[in-house]
Structures are given as C-alpha cells and as structure tokens.
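For the sake of transparency, this paper describes our internal protein records without simplification. An entry from our holdings is shown next, in its original layout:
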Amino acid sequence: MSKHQVDPMGRVVFRVRLPLVRSACTSLSVLYGDTKRRNASLKCVCEGLENSVTMLGSAAFHRVSPVITKLQPQVSLANDIACKSLDWLEETFPVLHTPADQVTT
C-alpha cells in the first residue's frame, strides 16, 4: 500500500496528500490567519482558545495512552479498516485528486 507507512513502533501512519484536502486546509489556514490579523480582539480570543485546546489535547493524550496501549490489537484493526476505506474513497472519487479551487469553479 503506497499511501501507508509503518513507523518504528508498528503503527500505521497515514499521509494524506490529496490535492483537494491539502488545498482546502491551506485555504482555511490562510483565512484564519487573515481574520486574526485584521481583528485584535478576535486574535486574542483565538489564541486563548488555541492554548486551551493544546493543553486539553495534551492532558487527554496522557490519560488515554494506557488505554490505547491495552487496546492496541483493536486499534490496529480499526486503523487497517480505515486505511482500506480511504483507499476505496480515493479510487471511487477521483475528484479528491483535484485542488479545491478547481472543484468549485
């Protein structure tokens, strides 16, 4: 499977490089950055939320890690199914290989 890579710990790492996904994320990132630059109050709120989400994500990761380790066979099976499903989506919907700006025009 060319889209999957196994890391040293044996987990499958997905590298989504679909033009549609990449261009949509880039557009949203630019819009978000521009919005923060234009409005100082909104920038302050967004940065506060970003910090909160980062802290919550870190705390959740540390609490869930032991459970994930115990459920590794089930997680691996779910990951394999997700990988196959994403492969099917890419083959079935070739529009995923088209940048977002070309899809909307």
